[in-house]
Inverse folding.
């Protein structure tokens, strides 16, 4: 299907792209810095004291997110990692406006976010593509909702399908594609609405290792070509180091920002690079504490380490078709 | 090929048995009409346009009634599925009403609408509305929520969200309910037409009874079955196949 993936120039150091020069350049190695609200006015996405609690099916109230403060710079690739049940997916749903936080504020370019908007597009783990539409119609969907004229829609759709190397499959239905191709359609559909921020919820978790490697390369290329801001949620620390400018670690329930790790490794990186493994190691040590806490919770309270949030339950429903 | 052969053999045997029984004259022909008598009735009925008119009138009624049922049923079903209060109150009522044959509404329909076509339409709607409503409610619940989220995420809201996302997303789950609604609408229509002189297939059937012409009665019965079968086999089977193809579900046969 796609053996013609564009290769990155592999010289070191990577040429400095002026678009990203405003990105914060942290010092090498590990650093912990929790950014306080109102620290900068230029953030693309800014989360201020986000709290979310909800009622589980057994009726108890659960605090899922506890005073999350985060600033994401324009053009930044931010990765969020944490153990299962830390609320990292939920956080993306909140930014997407699909759910309402209990308290706190989400700002996009300094403006408070109310409900969903095409300036922030979420890519689901289970792709969320529409099976009743062809690949082309899926990619066109967001533009159609915006009321963009047909000719422009078609042109853009062609462009974005070429960008993800799926031009030949524009008339296929979703079930005719492989898992990796579906995620690429989902990426094209998200990009076609020209959002400022891409929210990616473990988009590659269900894919095999080779496909995931390919998609890492493609996503990095698309990111550097389009200059989008990306918030990428994953439970895979190496994937986070592979892709992110910065990695944020959330604690086990309730989700809090435990620490932040700027990633200063030169791009392109590879999952198997010793430097990536080394950086992952530092995060994994901290993550392990959280995983232990989740296991302890399981033993002591008899609850499973992973209680599904309503959003996760909804996402899981896809498999039932 | 095999399937066609089985089909031909089965119906040939059925008609053969019928012909033999009729030929034996165990019962008088006015009680047990012959196949050729029924064929003659069919031919005569189409020849003098009685059946064409009856089919046109009946189809018109069922399409209007069923169409109203589908629109109303989708709105109602969607409301019940998305509102906890409606679900707790209306939900149970709808299920219990489904056990009521729609023709029970006939006396009231006559009083409310008078002896005219509207009374028939009312019975047709009461016959099919519940199936569509319950199917839509169920479909909305079964439909994976991710589609609604993805749709809202991509900027769809209000009617656009319903029309471009929620409706197509729930179609595979409501198509059997729509089919059932059609069958109920068709049955209710014929029943109502039999009770009231109003053109239509039901009345033509009753006319056969009044004339003691059992060949005509059976001829109309065959028409009613054939139309029901054709709509089911062409419209709904086609819709199901189309959905199965698009969604990549197991093929129908």
């Amino acid at each position: 299907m796609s053996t013609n993936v564009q290769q990155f120039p592999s010289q070191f150091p990577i040429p400095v792209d002026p678009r990203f020069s405003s990105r914060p350049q942290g010092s090498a190695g590990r650093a912990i810095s929790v950014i306080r609200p109102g620290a900068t006015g230029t953030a693309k996405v800014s989360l201020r004291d986000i709290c979310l609690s909800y009622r589980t099916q057994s009726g108890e109230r659960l605090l899922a997110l506890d005073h999350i403060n985060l600033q994401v710079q324009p053009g930044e690739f931010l990765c969020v990692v944490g153990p299962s049940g830390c609320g990292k997916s939920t956080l993306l749903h909140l930014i997407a406006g699909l759910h309402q936080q209990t308290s706190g504020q989400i700002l996009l370019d300094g403006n408070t976010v109310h409900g969903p908007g095409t300036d922030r597009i979420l890519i689901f783990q289970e792709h969320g593509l529409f099976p009743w539409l062809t690949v082309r119609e899926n990619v066109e969907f967001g533009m159609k909702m915006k009321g963009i004229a047909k000719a422009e829609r078609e042109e853009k759709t062609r462009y974005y399908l070429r960008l993800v190397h799926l031009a030949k499959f524009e008339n296929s239905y979703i079930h005719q594609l492989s898992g990796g191709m579906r995620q690429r359609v989902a990426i094209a559909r998200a990009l076609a609405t020209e959002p400022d921020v891409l929210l990616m919820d473990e988009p590659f978790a269900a894919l095999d290792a080779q496909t995931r490697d390919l998609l890492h390369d493609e996503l990095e290329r698309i990111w550097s070509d389009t200059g989008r801001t990306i918030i990428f949620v994953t439970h895979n620390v190496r994937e986070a180091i592979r892709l992110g400018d910065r990695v944020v670690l959330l604690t086990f329930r309730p989700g809090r920002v435990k620490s932040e790790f700027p990633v200063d490794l030169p791009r392109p990186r590879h999952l198997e690079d010793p430097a990536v493994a080394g950086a992952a190691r530092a995060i994994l040590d901290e993550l392990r504490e959280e995983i232990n806490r989740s296991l302890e919770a399981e033993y002591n309270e008899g609850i499973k380490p992973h209680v599904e949030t309503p959003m996760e339950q909804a996402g899981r429903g896809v498999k039932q078709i | 090929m095999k399937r066609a052969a089985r089909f031909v053999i089965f119906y040939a045997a059925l008609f053969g048995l019928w012909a033999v029984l009729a030929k034996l004259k165990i019962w008088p022909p006015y009680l047990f009409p012959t196949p050729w008598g029924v064929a003659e009735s069919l031919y005569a009925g189409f020849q003098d346009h009685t059946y064409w008119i009856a089919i046109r009138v009946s189809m018109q009624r069922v399409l209007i009634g069923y169409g109203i049922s589908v629109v109303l049923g989708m709105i109602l079903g969607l409301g019940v599925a998305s509102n906890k209060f409606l679900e707790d109150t209306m939900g149970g009522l709808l299920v219990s009403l489904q056990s009521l044959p729609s023709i029970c509404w006939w006396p009231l329909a006559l009083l409310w609408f008078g002896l005219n076509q509207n009374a028939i339409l009312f019975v047709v709607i009461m016959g099919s509305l519940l199936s569509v409503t319950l199917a839509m409610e169920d479909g909305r619940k079964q439909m994976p929520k991710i589609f609604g989220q993805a749709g809202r995420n991509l900027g769809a809201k209000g009617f656009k969200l319903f029309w471009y996302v929620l409706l197509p997303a729930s179609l595979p789950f409501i198509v059997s309910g729509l089919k059932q609604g059609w069958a109920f609408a068709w049955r209710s229509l014929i029943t109502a037409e039999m009770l009231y002189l109003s053109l239509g297939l039901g009345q033509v059937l009753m006319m056969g009874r009044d004339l003691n012409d059992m060949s005509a009665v059976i001829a109309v019965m065959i028409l009613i079955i054939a139309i029901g079968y054709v709509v089911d086999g062409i419209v709904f089977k086609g819709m199901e196949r189309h959905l199965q193809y698009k969604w990549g579900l197991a093929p129908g046969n």
Q: What stands out?
A: Chain B has two domains: 1-29, 33-247.
